[in-house]
Amino acid sequence: MSQADNSQGHPESIDTPQVLLEHHLKALRLPTILREYDKVAQQSAAEDIDYPRFLLRITELELLDRERRATERRIRQAKFPVLKSLDSFDFLAIPSLNKAMVLELARSEFIVRRENALLLGNSGTGKTHIALALGLAACQKGYRVRFTTAAAMVHELIEARDEKRLLRYQKQMATYELLIVDELGFVPLSKTGAELLFEVFSQRYERGSTMVTSNLPFQEWTEILGSERLTGALLDRLTHHVHILEMNGDSFRLKQSRKKRPTPAAS
User: Fold this and answer.
1) pTM
2) How much is the pLDDT for 33?
3) Parallel, antiparallel or unpaired: strands 209-214 and 116-120
4) Measuring CA to CA, which residue among 112, 103, 102, 100 is closest to residue 142?
5) pLDDT at 260
6) Positions of the chain with pLDDT lower than 50, given as ranges
7) Contact 213, 184 (CB under 8 A)
8) CA end-to-end span of the chain, whole Å?
9) How many Cα neighbours within 13 Å face the side chain of 10?
10) Domain range list for the chain
């Protein structure tokens, strides 16, 4: 039987290698190679690239795409309310802010050393923006991050306690290499809430990095936590290995509001 007859009698034999290859690539979970191998193969043939270099090209594409997907997954899991970067922050508007320290923190090496960061200053000075930007940078460098407000975390802790899953929730919080707790001081905490929040911070002491933003100086934290003993113990843990960013100045939001107001002439 001629080759032509054989191909006519068994048409599936023509596509079998390609079908099997795509099946194997799906089984191995290599979606980028599955999507790109034919195009890269044609390019490599046109450029007279040998097999090892072809494999190098196609596997590099897979690794880059896998890294991109992993970063996107970490960003989703961090639960940022919005995405912010340092590029969009106006450092000139807050002269008290140590820009060099912010850029150093953006390298995320403090996370490796399990150090903490505290962002302190009056409302509207960009503490949340900086915290979000540093959290995003950490995600991009491969670290597991979780962002929450102090009020939201306390609510989740009390809910977990009431539903008999507090231990599981605490263990989950301990898995994050960087925990960002925003707006500590905006809402006074109940005795139970303060104690549960302290327990989370205490469990992370020298095991993971914690970042806290607050509109209150340390001496006023007792007003939030309701106990001098608890406040002292918390500050003792948070400030042992810490980077403190002071962000006092005019409120960004107030400035923007003033700019948007029509002048008397315009009115």
Assistant:
1) 0.80
2) 81
3) parallel
4) 112
5) 56
6) 1-12, 263-267
7) yes
8) 93
9) 8
10) 3-75, 86-254
Residue 128: C-alpha distances to residues 131, 149, 202, 215, 264 (Å)? 5, 10, 23, 11, 34
Does the domain at 86-254 match CATH 3.20.20.60? Answer given as no
Query: Whats the size of the chain, residue-wise?
Result: 267
* Residue 42 structure tokens: 């044609």
Q: What is the pLDDT of residues 20-73, one digit of tens each?
A: 888 888 888 888 888 888 898 888 888 888 888 888 888 888 898 999 999 999
Rg of the chain taking only CA atoms, in angstroms: 27
Q: Which two tokens stand for residue 176?
A: 């994050």
3-state helix, strand, coil in the chain (%, to 5): 60, 10, 30
* Stretch (H or E) spanning 117: strand 116-120
Distance in angstroms (rounded) separating the CA atoms of residues 106 and 131: 10
Return the exposure string of 24-58: e unless at least 16 CB atoms fall within 10 Å of the residue's CB, then b: ebeeeebebbbebbeebeeebeeeebeeeebeebb
